[in-house]
Design goal:
This protein is an all-alpha fold. It has one domain (28-274). It has twelve helices and two strands, in the order αααβααααβααααα. It has helices at 2-23, 28-54, 57-71, 85-101, 103-114, 120-123, 126-157, 170-187, 190-199, 205-210, 212-226, 231-271, and strands at residues 77-79, 167-169. The chain starts with a helix and ends in a 26-residue tail after the last helix. Residues 1-15 and 279-297 have low confidence and may be disordered.
Length: 297
């Protein structure tokens, strides 16, 4: 009988954790409704950002073309060949700025959608997630604008001759720059994604180190796909990816050590006869009681 009681106590923390996740589960139709609500709120945020950005459309497009104008030879200029092209280009510029400006709201809605499947102490990371993901996305876009664009445009404009004068179309230039800006913004999210997967137990620092050479190969392939067909641009994208990958390994290892220490403390309390070990994250729960951290404002 005492052995059964000890076994039941040993399994109780994990049962409590499973019950915590199970209590937050929703039926499939409720998931669809939740997804609809999150998408609508993200779209509203993008719409507000679009309206604000459209009031400054000429200035925003002027900033976007600064790296190109510095590299263009004398006589080269931007043109449009369809009556509506300039209008739609300004709309796309405003939309691009609206998405970047609304990125904190977009990441917040994303986190709120996935949070029902997380433990209580993981759901408390919502604001660090929103802030860090937004900062990383903007840093990726800024790095592309300030570092990659000048080298890429200098390379492309180097093919101009007195007989060949570049005359770039507005919409093609915008499509090119928007693709690169979003690509760099997304790839700069790598540390956050890998740390999140590490906390979920999907990846480990040992596994990331073991697969490093394959990851570097994939990074160079991705850089070749998303950047212009020149070596300089590909290296400028691949090198930050490699550095972010190494940073991710360090962060995942730190998260593993923290988790191991917490588990060791729980086991020490159990072996010391101080009662049943708390479920993972329960040591942080007391500080949050009554705070209503899981309620959405």
């Amino acid at each position: 009988m005492p052995e059964e009681t000890a076994q039941n106590h040993a399994h109780q923390p994990w049962d409590e954790k499973e019950d915590e996740v199970a209590a937050s589960r929703m039926p499939f139709l409720e998931h669809l409704e939740e997804l609809r609500v999150r998408l609508v709120r993200a779209a509203i945020a993008v719409g507000v950002g679009f309206l604000v950005a459209y009031a400054f459309k000429e200035r925003l497009y002027g900033y976007l073309t600064i790296p190109l104008k510095k590299a263009m030879p004398p006589g080269a200029r931007l043109i449009y060949t369809a009556p509506q092209e300039a209008f739609f280009t300004y709309l796309k510029v405003a939309f691009l700025a609206g998405v970047i400006g609304a990125s904190p709201v977009i990441f917040y809605q994303l986190w709120r959608f996935v949070s029902p499947g997380l433990y209580r102490h993981e759901r408390r990371a919502i604001w660090p997630f929103v802030i860090i993901s937004s900062v990383l996305f903007v840093c990726g876009a800024v790095f592309c604008y300030a570092v990659v664009f000048p080298y890429a445009f200098q390379f492309f404009m180097s093919f101009a001759t007195p007989e060949i004068t570049p005359m770039l179309k507005l919409n093609e230039y915008l499509s090119f720059t928007a693709t690169l800006l979003f690509a760099f913004g997304v790839v700069f999210e790598m540390p956050l994604v890998l740390v999140f997967l590490g906390r979920m137990g999907v990846v480990t620092s040992q596994g990331l180190r073991r697969w490093r050479k394959y990851a570097i190969l994939v990074m160079f392939i991705a850089a070749a796909v998303f950047t212009p067909p020149d070596v300089v641009s590909q290296i400028l994208m691949a090198l930050p990816l490699i550095m972010l990958y190494e940073v991710s390994i360090v962060l995942v290892a730190a998260a593993q050590r923290k988790k191991a220490r917490r588990q060791a403390e729980m086991e020490a309390e159990w072996e010391g006869g101080e009662g049943e070990p708390p479920a993972e994250g329960d040591e942080d729960t007391a500080a949050d009681q009554g705070a209503g951290e899981d309620q959405e404002p």
